[in-house]
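Letters spell out the chain; backbone shape is given numerically. Both lines appear below:
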Amino acid sequence: MAKNPSEIVIPAELRPADGRFGCGPSRVSQQAVDALASVATTWLGTSHRQAPVKRVVGSVRAGLKQLFGLPDDWEIVLGNGGSTVYWDVATFGLIEQRSAHFVFGEFSSKFAEASAAAPHLGEPVVVESATGDHPAIAAVAGADVYALTHNETSTGVAMQLRRPAGAEAGSLVVVDATSAAGGLAWSPAEVDVYYFAPQKCFASDGGLWIAACSPAAVERIERVHASKRWIPASMSLKTALDNSKLDQTYNTPALATLFLLDQQVQWMLGQGGLAWCANRCAESASLLYRWAESREWATPFVADAAKRSNVVGTIDLVDPAAGGVSANDVNAALRANGIVDTDSYRKLGRNQLRIGMFPAVPPTDVAALTACIDYVVNELRG
C-alpha cells in the first residue's frame, strides 16, 4: 500500500532551520519582524505624509541606489500595486508608440499582453521561446521600448541583460526584475528601467512597485506626460516620480511593506551589498543543481546551465509512470514537516519542484532541503 505523504516524518536533524522556500511571498526574517513590532505604537498607523514615514521611504530610495551602484542622476520611483500594475503604468507612461517583448514564461508574457491591449499604442513585437529557454535579444525596427525579464519566476530561467545591438537611438531597455532584483548582478549601463516588487529578494510584503530609472527614462516619462496623453493619476509615472522625489507615494502605501523593505535593504548593505547577495544565491543554486544532477530521479528543468536562475530553481522529477514519484506527494510530505512552498508554478503543469533561493535563504538551508527531499523520495518509493 502506498504511503500517505502527509504521514511521513522527516528526522529533525535533517530539516532546515527555516522551512520557507517560496518564490513570493518569500521568507521574511525574524529580525525584521521584531523590528516592525518595536514600532507598532509609534510608526505603524501614522501618516505617510509626515517625516517619520518619509524618512523610511528616503532610506529605501538611497539604499537601493547604493545597492545597485546607480549613478547619482538615476531616480528610484515607487508606486502602489506591484509589478502587475506597473505593466499598465508603463503602457501609459513609458511606451511612446511600439514595444518589443522577449517572452519566455508566464510573467514575461503579461507586459506584452498589456501593451497589445492598449488602444493608444501600436501592435507590439513579441519574440517568444519555449519554456525552459529564453529568446535571443535583437533590435526591432520602430521599437522605442525593449521589454526584458531578468528572471522568469515561473520557469527558473535567467537572462543576461544587455542593450540590443543596433537598437534605434533613444529606445529604452525596460526590465522586469521582480524575482531578480537584489539577488542577481546587473549593469546600469545596459538598462534604463529596472522595476520590481519587494516580496521576493527584498523579503517584504507585496503591494508596491519600485523602478530604478535612468536619466533617459526620466526624460521619456516627462515627455510622454507633456504630450497630453490621457493617463489616470494613479497610473501616472510622472505623478509617481514627483512624489518619490519627496520621499512619498501618490496614494497611501502599506507601511509594514515599506518598513520590511527598508530592513532588508539595510541588511543587504550590511552584509556586503549586491555582490554578497549574488554570491550567496549562486552558492545555493550550485548546491541545488549539483544535487539534482546527481540523482537518477531528478534533473534541472533548464537544460542550458548558463540560463539557470540563481534565485528560482526548478527541478523536474521523473514521472510516476516511469518509476518516479509525484512532485505533489513530495510537496505534501515536506509541508507536513514544516517545509513549505516548494510547489511548481501552477500553469507550467510539470512534475516539478520550484525552490526560492533568495538572499534571506542561507545555502545551509538549501542543502538541508535536498536531504529532506532525498528522505521523502526514499520513503515514497518504499
User: Anything to note?
Assistant: Residues 273-293 form the longest helix (21 residues). The longest strand covers residues 75-80. Residues 65 and 77 are 11 Å apart (CA to CA). The mean pLDDT is 97.
